[in-house]
Amino acid sequence: MKITLIVIGKTTDAHVQALIDEYSRRLQHYVPFELDVIPELRATRGLSIEQQKAQEAELLQKRLHQGDYIVLLDEHGRERRSVDFAAWLEKREAAGARRLVFIVGGAYGFAPAIHALAAEEISLSLMTFSHQLIRVLFVEQLYRAHTILRGEPYHHE
């Protein structure tokens, strides 16, 4: 199984990007991983929030494949401890989907069309983080989950 993280907008902070790159490199040791960056919308000044979300939804849908297991990273999703997330991830990887796709939406969240495609929604915290920091936090959690599953000493509990 391949894990894909789809995000909207490039990471502009070099320090944040370095951390994403580091955890992505580490994660590759366990599972094929891809970070798919969709460019931010341009000329959004005249668009409503719903129109922006609809345009982002069109771009997201073009990145999705038949048979993908789609999980939205959304503040209203289910929270899990790291060990619980690792167990969930192990079950998802064993379920046989070709790709496990996680999506970080744009600044205003997801259009209803994307919510309809998702099998699940996960929240990383009750707190709000910038979309750039969520990328680092989530890739680190993917890495942590794989070390937990292999009994490696990265995670302490």
How would you explain this protein's 3D organization?
This protein has 157 residues and is an alpha/beta fold. The protein has a single domain, classed as Alpha/beta knot, CATH 3.40.1280. It contains five helices and five strands; from the N terminus they run E-H-E-H-E-H-E-H-E-H. It has helices at residues 14-27, 49-63, 82-94, 112-117, 131-149, and strands spanning 2-8, 33-38, 69-78, 99-104, 120-122. Strands 2-1-4-3-5 form a five-stranded parallel sheet. Helix 3 (82-94) crosses helix 5 (131-149).
β-sheet strand percentage: 15-25%
First-last Cα distance: 28 Å
Could you spell the SSE succession in H and E letters?
Answer: EHEHEHEHEH
Name the poorly predicted regions.
Answer: none
Count of discrete structural domains: 1
Give helix % range: 40-55%
Question: Which architecture per CATH?
Answer: 3-Layer(aba) Sandwich
Question: How many DSSP H or I helices?
Answer: 5
Topology-level CATH name: Alpha/beta knot
CATH superfamily: SPOUT methyltransferase, trefoil knot domain
CATH class: Alpha Beta
Widest sheet: strand ordering: 2-1-4-3-5
Strand tally, please?
A: 5
Class of secondary structure makeup? alpha/beta
Biggest sheet overview:
5 strands, parallel
Radius of gyration: 15 Å
- Report the mean per-residue pLDDT as an integer: 94
Coarse shape: globular
